[in-house]
Amino acid sequence: MVDENRIPRNSMDDHSNEMAQKRREFLTEKTGSPLKYTGDYTIDPAVLPGNVENFIGIVQMPVGVAGPVQINGEHANGLFYVPLATTEGTLVASYSRGMRVINECGGVKTTVVEGFMQRAPAFIFEDARQAREFGQWVDDNLDKIRAAAESTTSIGKLTHIHQWSVSKTRYLRFNYTTGDAAGQNMVGKATLAACEWIKANYPSACEYLLSGNMDTDKKHSHLNMLHSRGKRVIAEIVLKKDVLAKIMKVDTKLLARATVLANTGALMAGAAYNGPHSANGIASLFIATGQDEANVVESHAGLLSHELLPNGDFYLSVTLPSLIVATYGGGTGLPTQKECLEMLGCYGKGKANKFAEIVAATVLAGDISLACAVIAGHWVSSHDKMGRNRP
What we know:
alpha+beta, Alpha-Beta Plaits, 3 domains, 10-stranded mixed beta sheet, 10 strands, globular
C-alpha cells in the first residue's frame, strides 16, 4: 500500500530540480504553503548529496559585510571584509563600528593556541578495580591504539587520551587534530576502529559505548573551557583612550567599571561567556560560510579579559577555547558559502587557523561595540532607528 503522507523520494536520483518540485507540490497540497520563494534558487541540486536530504529549495538569508578589520595574526594578516548572515538590524553596523575602533588602535592581535576534536567512549567492567587496570593498559598500549585509529584517516592524528573512572566505568576522551575539517565524523570513525582494536586485544572481556557523552558533541561544557574542543584562539588589543572617547564616546575607566559589573552578572547567571555577545558574530559568520550551525553552542563559550592600563588605555581580549570551524568539507563547498570563504581568503586546505583568527577578531569587534553602546546609551536608540522593519 502507498502511504499518502510519505514525503516523495527517488532512490536513484533524489537531488534534482524535478524531485525538489515534486516535494514542494506535495507539501503545498498537505500544508497550503506555496513555497514560492523557497523554490526560487540558482544552485544545482546535484552538489547537495552529503549535505541535505529531502531537498525542497533554499532558505535565503540576508548577508551583509562588516569591516574592513585589521588583523595582525599568525595566519590571518591584513585587512578583511567579514560576511555576516543575519536578520538582526544594527548587527552588521555594530560590528563595523567595533572594527573601526580596532583599526584606529593598530589592529587586533590573534593567536591560535591549540586545536583538537574528541570522541569519548565509555568502557564498562565488573568493578572499579578492573576499570582502573584497564586505564593503565590503555596508557601502555597507546601507540598501538593510535595506529588503529589513524588507519581510518589520512588527516586525523590521535595526540592523547584523557581518562576518568566513575563506578565500574572508565571514560576515555580521544583527542585528535583534524587538519582543516571540523572532524566530528572523522574522529567518530577513527575511535570506533580504536575501540574495536581494544576489545579484540585487551586480555579480559570488556564492552563499550562509542560515546559516553564526555565528548559533549553539540553541547556546551566546562570541560571544553579547560581542554579545547576545536580551536583555542585568542584575540587581543590595547584600546587607546583617545580613540574610544572619539568614536564610542566612552571613557576607559567607565568601561573598566562596567566590565567588572558584567563579569559578576555573568558569574551569578552561570553564563558560558562573560562578554556581551559572542554568539551573534559566530552564528552570522557560521551561516555565511557553511559551518555546522549547531556548533555555535560550543563555539560561543569563552572568556573576556580586561585590564585598565596606567596610562588610561584599555587592554581587552577574547579567548574562545572551543571554536569549531572548517574551511574544507561539509557545507563549506556549497556555492554561496564557498564565495564567502573566498572573500576571506579562507576556502580550502591550510586555512582553518586563519579562519579561526578572523572569527575571534570579529567577536572582539562586536563586544567592543556593544559594550560601549550600552554604556553610552546607544543600545536601545540604535535598534529603534535601524532594527525595525515594521510600520
